Amino acid sequence: VSATLAALRKDALLQWRTRSRFVAVFVFGATALLLFSFAIGPDAAALRAHSAGFLWLALLLASTLALGDSFHGEMEHRALEGLVLAPAPAAALYYGKAIANWAQLALLGVVLVPIMVVLYDAPADRAPRLVGLILLGSAGLSAPGTLYAAMTAQVRAHQTLLPLLLFPLVVPVLVSAVNATALVMTGDPMDQLRSWTLLLVCFDLIYGSLCGLLFGRVVES
Amino acid sequence: MARGNGPFVAGGIGFALLLAGSYWGLFVAPPETYMGDVQRIMYVHVPTAWNAMLAFSFSFICAIASLVRGGYRWDARMEASMEVGVVLATLLCMQGALWAKPTWGVWWDWDPRLTTTAVMVLAYAGIIALRSFVDDPARRAVWSAVAGIVAFVDVPIMYFSVKWWNSLHQVQSSPETVSTAFHWPLRVNAIGVLLVMSAMIALRTRIARMRREREMAPPPEAA
Predict the structure, then answer these.
(1) Distance (Å) from the alpha carbon of B130 to chain A's nearest alpha carbon
(2) Residue B210 CB partners (closer than 8 Å, separation 6+)
(3) Angle, alpha carbons B92-B95-B96 (nearest 5°)
(4) Residue B124: closest CA among chain A residues belongs to which residue?
């Protein structure tokens, strides 16, 4: 646990020192939200109806930028090799990085919500639930995303490879997060919110543990 | 290295069975009551579906074995079964679209099995792309095995998520759910596709091994 905390401290510090990169990713997500409205046309009702989907697509697209950069520091001066040689389990390195990425993506999702409200006139009055869903969904993006980022950061063409590997995998996250978010925003007459949330939690737990197990093999090879 | 003729023999028998089963299904078996002749695509569609899932399941087993045992034997098998699985699953989606157009009136439907298959094709194509971008064979073996495990675990979750999201596909066909007149062509074709698939995996494994041997061979001495 202390090794995980040390790794988390390192990753949080890295992210704080590269906060200008976070601003760039946020601008990218906001731009994506703006562009989706051009695809739909100035139809206020349709935009409002699909705002949950647009929010998650913007977050998903922006997450590949954030995740793809997340091993940038480790690639310099072969720092990853040094980290692997440190007397700490590889899983600690994974959870440190994954939790830092999770925090970054969740924050990104939260700051994209006002943009969504302004652009699409989306109803976001149940803010605590919305934040909870963003936390669950961004954990689902971060858990496998951190594992794949560790691989793709070390190969050429990683900007292409990361979304190619990650997007098909996170289809369940996207489906359940979009549906749950739409239910939170527009009301839940059939009481379906619970099953979507449960699916998200299951995905997070399964991939949180599976990727923690497998991470060591990825960085040690 | 094994260089037997087994795969060629099995593949030949498989093709023969496939021809016989398809002839049977197309010309001998009676047409289905509601869907008519369109339904005859089932004789290749259902065997393709079974065998595509079999190929992906085999690649999952190979991925675990490759991580546990190390070495390249299982890596070559995994590479082969992933590629053959992608080919079969792509065929499956195309057959499904051909069947859906006259039956449902649309090429594509967001049904759980169809959508899951399509996403699986993309997921495994991504892993094959990853393999082609990693130059170090040891790394390539470990990484693609990890990605193979991660992707296969996703299949049931994805299936359930899409199932809750939307459903229209009819119940799976198996010899129990279809009339006895349809059994034999279905079974013959299933065994035919199985043999062809096994032959393709075996031959592709051979290619993978030979490629890796060439990759790891020392450079030829300068004359």
Answers:
(1) 7
(2) B1
(3) 85
(4) A165
Q: Is the pLDDT of residue A13 over 50?
A: yes
Extract the tokens encoding A124. Answer: 């976001």
Chain A positions in Cβ-Cβ contact with residue B122 (cut-off 8 Å): 164, 167-168
- Please state, for a pLDDT cut of 90, what percent of chain B lies above it: 15
| Longest alpha-carbon distance in chain B | 74
**B166 in A contact zone (CB under 8 Å):** no
CA angle A184, A187, A193 (to 5 degrees): 55
Contact A68, A158 (CB under 8 A): yes
Determine contact: B154 vs chain A, CB below 8 A: yes
What number of other Cβ atoms are within 10 A of residue A154's Cβ? 20
Q: Residue A32: its pLDDT value, please?
A: 92
**Which pLDDT tens digit goes with each residue over A104-156?**
999 999 999 888 888 888 887 788 888 899 999 999 999 999 999 988 888 87
The helix (run of H) or strand (run of E) holding residue B33 is: none
DSSP code of B214? H
Asked whether the whole model's pTM tops 0.90, one would answer no
Contact between A109 and A123 (Cβ < 8 Å): no
Which chain B residue's Cα is nearest to A197?
B161
Question: What pLDDT score was predicted for residue A1?
Answer: 76
Q: Is B32 helix (H, G, I), strand (E, B) or coil?
A: strand
